[in-house]
Write a structure and sequence with these properties.
Mean pLDDT of chain A: 86
Radius of gyration of chain A: 29 Å
Oligomer: heterodimer
Radius of gyration of chain B: 22 Å
Number of helices of chain B: 11
Low-confidence stretches of chain B: none
Mean pLDDT of chain B: 88
Shape of chain B: globular
Structural class of chain B: alpha/beta
Pfam family, one (chain B): ABC_tran
InterPro entries (chain B): AAA+_ATPase, ABC_transporter-like_ATP-bd, ABC_transporter-like_CS, P-loop_NTPase
Largest interface: A-B, 22 and 27 residues
Strand order of the largest sheet of chain B: 6-7-8-3-9-10
Strand content of chain B: 25-35%
CATH superfamily of the largest domain in chain B: P-loop containing nucleotide triphosphate hydrolases
Keywords (chain B): ATP-binding, Nucleotide-binding
Strand order of the largest sheet of chain A: 2-1-3-4
Helix content of chain B: 25-40%
Strand content of chain A: 5-15%
GO molecular function, one term (chain B): ATP hydrolysis activity
Protein name (chain B): ATPase
Chain lengths: 375, 298
């Protein structure tokens, strides 16, 4: 026990003596949390719309006005021919081009119908889809107004028939505040990555400098050495989670509905899994440079398949299986569930189980490879 | 009692045979030198005896314990100073020493006597980080850390490589004092002059022990006539002596050349040979063999 304490003390001494390390563990995560949370926004706003109006009628101008009045759209041009309209899309000066054909107003009066065309820049598929949806809403709205004026009798007819009206409420994040959704996830990701890199670099550093040689001829037992290496980083991880939660509360006023102890309890288990993976990387690498590259590889997969930006539910089935051992995926999920929904242990126990399995698996593997390398 | 016993230890790294069939018996309280060039297998042997590496064949005991079966006991009673400085550079002198003391379940105060002579020299810098010490001071700190748990056996792998001449001499004086405290010391060095300071030396080359003897015996047993030869143009001298018919071997030694011959030769004969080749300021005199001569002879 004394040996472990001495090892922990030595480890913390080294961490805090390193001038670059202290801010890296305290200030940088908070700054990252703030910057990322402000920047990482999925909201689509200020879509540039160009309207090629061939009709030049009262109605076509009213439709243009409607687009201009919408908070989602910015009028970015009024091309006078098709080539110009396409050029605007090409040059990224318009996200969407609305073509109003000549005779729209006339058709509306005569035939009670008119056609229009939307050209949507769909390089970014989801943005294109959203732009299309917004534009259709504006046009439908316009459609209803026009119908009321031109053919009130049709409107009266349809009003008589039973129509389903859907009302909806946004639960758990009533204002659809993107940050409320992102902050818990970003925080979970930051803590995981930080601890992963720290652990991956640590043991390999002792090997690179040669100090492991000196440690190995002492009576330190292997489990003592491993605990002495892991516990300091577990403490640092929990500390970072704490300052992250405080910063999230103070700066973004994110709700913490569920139990704070549940969050920390899960964090411990999650960090154990991360530490085990970090240890494994450390035993596989001979130099810090190698360890960095392996850690980098894991980091990329963990982040991109962690459900922070793209929901895991919409990944293909095989990819969803792949996210099972990913600590970030579970951490992000649990953070969101507990903080925003107030989930209890029973609701998130599957994540506890998953992390316990992952820690055991990688922990055993790390100890085993550590013995094999014998260094 | 034998403090270190090595029976037929062999170890290969892939196809490279690092050490082969090593046999050694080192007495308790002996200062034993392992002398050999770089790559001779010294470090491999150290690592096997320090329980860091498993041998392919053979067995060995350190302080009566088997290096495989009783490795825990050995680790408790062994002081090991690897060739490369391997303390924590970002911890201070005192923190390093205290760390290793605590790991061995002791304290600096408890064994202060043992390290006093050495540690006192670096104590003024005890708040300094180990990484900022000079080479000689690092060496002293490493030795202090290796001694802090009062080991029975001390392994020093090339402790004086890269250390200045004065510090080297001091270091060997320290070893003599430790020997007086009945600590068995196994030290390796590529410097032949240090070999003279050991009780016994083992010459090792290409993974094999070539001979084991006290340095005096080793040099006394040198089988060939040996001369110290000097002249103004040393390079030409070396070239010419190689063409001298009785020459067995000739190699530079300090400011002179050491010339060994196949059969006894009159120094006058050598002088005449060199005079005929226009050498000036020629010095030729019979000399005693050193460890280096013995080593070159093998």
């Amino acid at each position: 026990m004394r040996t472990i304490l001495v090892l922990i003390r030595k480890e913390l001494l080294q961490v805090f003596r390193n001038k670059a390390m202290l801010p890296l563990l305290t200030v940088v995560p908070v700054v990252q949390l703030i910057v990322l949370s402000f920047a990482a926004s999925n909201e689509v706003k200020d879509l540039k719309v160009a309207i090629y109006d061939q009709d030049h009628s009262t109605y076509s101008r009213r439709l243009t006005q409607k687009f201009a009045a919408s908070t989602y759209f910015l009028l970015s041009g009024a091309p006078q021919n098709l080539q110009d309209a396409e050029l605007l899309l090409q040059k990224d000066e318009a996200d969407i081009v609305l073509l109003i054909p000549a005779g729209m107003e006339r058709d509306l009066y005569r035939l009670q119908r008119a056609d229009m065309q939307l050209l949507v820049n769909a390089v970014n598929g989801s943005k294109g889809g959203i732009a299309n949806g917004y534009a259709n809403r504006v046009i439908q709205d316009f459609n209803r107004e026009v119908r009321a004026e031109i053919a009130p009798q049709i409107l009266a007819m349809t009003a008589g028939q039973g129509r389903i009206e859907v009302n909806f409420q946004h639960w758990y994040n009533p204002l659809l505040d993107y940050r409320t959704f992102m902050v818990p996830g970003i925080l979970g990701t930051l803590v995981t990555i930080l601890i992963l890199v720290l652990t991956a670099m640590n043991v390999v550093r002792e090997r690179e400098i040669g100090t492991i040689e000196q440690l190995n001829v002492t009576p330190i037992r292997k489990y003592q050495l491993i605990l002495g290496k892991l516990l300091p980083f577990l403490l640092i991880g929990l500390f970072d989670l704490a300052i992250g939660l405080i910063a999230g509360k103070l700066i973004f006023n994110i709700p913490i509905i569920g139990s704070i102890w549940l969050i920390f309890g899960f964090c411990v288990l999650n960090l154990l899994a991360v530490l085990a993976i970090g240890m494994l990387i450390s035993t596989m690498a001979d130099t810090q440079q190698q360890a960095m590259f392996i850690a980098w590889f894991f980091m990329m997969i963990f982040i991109l398949m962690g459900g922070l930006f793209t929901p895991i539910d919409s990944m293909p089935q095989w990819a969803q299986y792949l996210t099972y051992p990913n600590p970030i995926a579970h951490f992000v999920e649990v953070m969101r569930q507990v903080m925003l929904k107030g989930s209890t242990f029973a609701d998130v126990q599957e994540h506890f189980v998953a992390m316990a399995i992952v820690s055991l698996f990688f922990g055993t593997l790390a100890v085993w490879t550590y013995r094999k390398t014998g260094a | 009692m034998n403090s270190i016993q090595v029976n037929g230890i062999s170890k290969a790294y892939g196809k490279v045979q690092a050490v082969q069939d090593i046999h050694l018996d080192i007495q308790s309280g002996e200062l034993f030198g392992l002398i050999g060039p770089d790559g001779a297998g010294k470090t491999t042997l150290f690592r096997i005896l320090a329980t860091l590496l498993l041998a392919d064949a053979g067995d060995a005991t350190v302080a009566g314990w088997d290096v495989v079966r009783d490795f825990r006991q050995i680790r408790r009673h062994l002081g090991y100073m690897p060739g490369r400085f391997s303390l924590y550079q970002d911890l201070t002198v005192e923190e390093n020493l205290r760390f290793f003391a605590t790991i061995f379940g002791t304290s600096i105060e408890e064994n202060y006597d043992l390290i006093k002579d050495i540690y006192q020299q670096i104590e003024p810098f005890r708040k300094r980080r180990a990484g900022q010490l000079s080479g000689g001071m690092k060496q002293k700190l490493a030795l202090s850390c290796a001694l802090i748990h009062a080991p029975r056996v001390l392994f020093l792998d090339e402790p004086t490589t890269g250390v200045d001449a004065v510090s080297r001499q001091e270091f060997w004086e320290m070893l003599q004092r430790l020997k007086a405290k009945n600590i068995t010391i196994l030290v390796s060095t590529p410097y032949m002059d240090e070999a003279q300071l050991c009780d016994r030396i083992g010459l090792i080359r290409q993974g094999r022990i070539l001979s084991v003897a006290p340095p005096d015996e080793l040099t006394a047993a040198y089988p060939h006539p040996l001369f110290e030869v000097g002249a103004q143009n040393r390079y030409q001298l070396l070239q010419d002596l190689r063409e001298y018919s009785p020459t067995r071997s000739v190699f530079p030694f300090g400011e002179f050349l050491h010339l060994s011959t196949r059969h006894p030769v009159d120094p006058m004969d050598i002088r005449e040979f060199l005079a005929a080749r226009q050498h000036r300021e020629v010095v030729v005199r019979p000399t005693e063999a050193t460890v280096e001569d013995c080593f070159m002879n093998l």
